[in-house]
Structure formats: C-alpha cells, structure tokens
Amino acid sequence: MSFVTFYGWEVEFEGDHHLRAEQEARSGRLYTMYHGTTVKSAQDIIQNGFRQSPDGMLGAGVYVSRDQKKAERYPLKSPVSDRVVLKLQVDCGKVKRIDTDNHPMQKTWHMQGYDTAWVPPNCGMKSVPSGLEEDCIWDPQRVEVTDIAVAPNTTLLAQLRQLISQRKSQSTSTRPSEARSGRLYTMYHGTTVKSAQDIIQNGFRQSPDGLLGAGVYVSRDQKKAERYPLKSPVSDRVVLKLQVDCGKVKRIDTDNHPMQKTWNMQGYDTAWVPPNCGMKSVSSGLEEDCIWDPQRVEVTDIAVAPNTTLLAQLRQLISQRKSQSTSTRPSGQGACNTCKTPNHAGHVVQPCWGCGENICTFMAKHICSVRP
C-alpha cells in the first residue's frame, strides 16, 4: 500500500495489496494472504469456497497468513508432493490484534464485533513457537482464491489455475454481488402511495424494529420491493428507486446471527442479507438491506406506480424536492462537486497524478486505482 500525504489528506494507491507480515492490516481493506493445504482440499476450496475450521488457537475461522513461507509448511504432516499454497484476496473487515498468550479475546473476538484476529510475528506467544504471523478470518466469504502460489508440479499448477478460472466465470454469472463499503448503490423500497409522498417530501425515517433491528429497509432486488407493503393492493403500491450510501457493510447470513440486531453498535452502517442464504426468517430467499441512518438513502426516481398520472405526480415531487435541497444549501458557492462539503472559499480541484480522477484538497482521502 502506497500513500502520500498532501494538504491534510492522503492519496492511497490500491494497486499493491500485499502487506509485510509485521504490518498490521487496516480494517476494511483487501489484502494478499496465503493458505497451505493438500491437493484434494485445494481443489475443493477452489470449487466450493472455504469453510470454517471448527476450532484452533484463535477459535473458529479460516486460518491464513501473509507469510507465504509459513503457508508452505502446511499441512504439517503432509509430504511436499501433496502440498499446495493458495494465494488469496482477503477482506479483513474489522481487525483485532492478539499478541499475548491467554488474551481475553483470543477466541471471543468475533463476539466483540471483529471480523479478523491477527497474531503478529515474533510477538512472544508460547502458543506460536515458530514466531510466524497468522490471521483467522471468521467469515469464509471474506476469503477468495486468486492464484496458486506453490504446487507440487507444473501439470497440477495448470489444472488448479484452470479450476480458478472456471470458478471465476461461474461466480461472475451466478454470485450475488455484496455491496462494497463506502460505495453508492441503486436500491428499491416498496411502500404505499401516501407514504411515498411523505418520504419524497420529508425523507425516510427508521423503522423501529424488524429482522435486522431498527433502520430503513431496502433491497437491490426490485421484484422484492414490488411485493411491499404485503397487505396493500397493487393499486396502492409504489416502488421508490433510491441511491444508497452503504457506508460500512455487515453480512448477516444465518438465523440468530450474533450481530443480527446489534450491527450498528459494532460500527456498521448497513446490514446485508444475501439472496438464498438459507435463513428461515427470510422464507422468500430474496436479498435485503437495512440502512441505519436515513440520511444515507435518497429517492432518485419512481420505479413502479399504479398509473401514469400518479407516476408523473410523484416524479414532480422529486423534482421539487431536489430544487428545494439545492436552494437551501449553505450560502457561498454551494457544495463542492468533488468533496461534497460546503464550498465557502472556493476549493482547488486538480486531476490525480495516478488515475487522472478529479481530487479536491478538502477531501479526507482519494483511492487511486493506478500505481504511480
């Protein structure tokens, strides 16, 4: 990870996701890591994904390392001819450092809202006599195989890489897309005609409770939104098209998930239930999201209305609301189009010297996709 500080903000170059073992992973970032396994297990992991180890030094989870040399030692009792090292892309989420024996959170870190436990190298833990770095990722969905780092021979290397290629092709066409933290997404909300008018004019309000607790319930699946409100006739149903700033996203994909209603208390802005995840409490199997802060949800259009007259009326309300929002911004030059903050004194906007995207000196940070 390369970055350069400039006028109080920093440009981060995301082209290199590899951390040295002694560097602590930054929460919510993607990193290159490794996992040593047998040939048969490697094939299974590539085709079906990782599964949690039921227990270990850091409890349940997927055990990986940023140190390829450590991964090459595993499985400990397997001959070299049956060892494969998978190269991974890992979304660390929220990271907890475990660097002492009998750490109070050594096996309970996930219950405290963390996604990854990290044991730094040479930290002096007797339970890690090798002194080599390791990580435990709670959710297998955060770990993706991207390549083969080590294989017993070139023939097997080619076969495993072919499996990865096939899996990526299948995933592209069939896997539901998980919202990436901090991005804007199009979503939908089904409601009554009267409520649609109120939401457009006054904004969303939190539902006091629901499957995922308090928040604004939306879906990326328009067909799901069209079913709501469940007891309202079609003549009284409207589907609002939204722009949603997801913020930090927590995946909830099991019944009685430990963070099912407490995700916001753990620092997340959005809870996401993926489609067909097997939750009995989501009998339809359709995807849904719960956004804690109503300010993160903006109505941009009407996806479905009972008739063309009402469609035109609701779209006129949206247009009026946007005009009011523009006229009531802080005085001065309005909001900066780049950093979105009030532009009182004029902001300096210039192209990033890496990717060429416009950046403003008042931005907290800019993520660049091109290495300088």
TL;DR of this structure?
This protein is about 20% helix and about 25% strand. It is an alpha+beta fold and about 375 residues long.
Account of the protein in words:
- The structure is a single chain.
- With 372 residues, the protein is of the alpha+beta class.
- It has two domains: 14-174, Phosphoenolpyruvate Carboxykinase, domain 3 (Alpha-Beta Complex), CATH 3.90.228.10; 184-327, Phosphoenolpyruvate Carboxykinase, domain 3.
- The protein contains six helices and 19 strands.
- It has helices at residues 39-48, 68-71, 154-174, 193-202, 222-225, 308-327; strands spanning 2-6, 9-13, 30-38, 62-64, 83-91, 95-97, 116-119, 134-137, 143-150, 184-192, 216-218, 237-245, 249-251, 270-273, 288-291, 297-304, 349-351, 358-360, 365-368.
- A four-stranded mixed beta sheet has the order 4-8-7-6, with no helix packed on it. A four-stranded mixed beta sheet has the order 11-15-14-13, with no helix packed on it. The chain has a three-stranded mixed beta sheet with strand order 1-2-19, with no helix packed on it.
- α4 (193-202) runs parallel beside α6.
- The longest helix has 21 residues, at 154-174.
- The protein is elongated.
- The termini are close together.
- It comes from Coilia grayii.
- Belongs to the ARTD/PARP family.
- InterPro entries: Poly(ADP-ribose)pol_cat_dom.
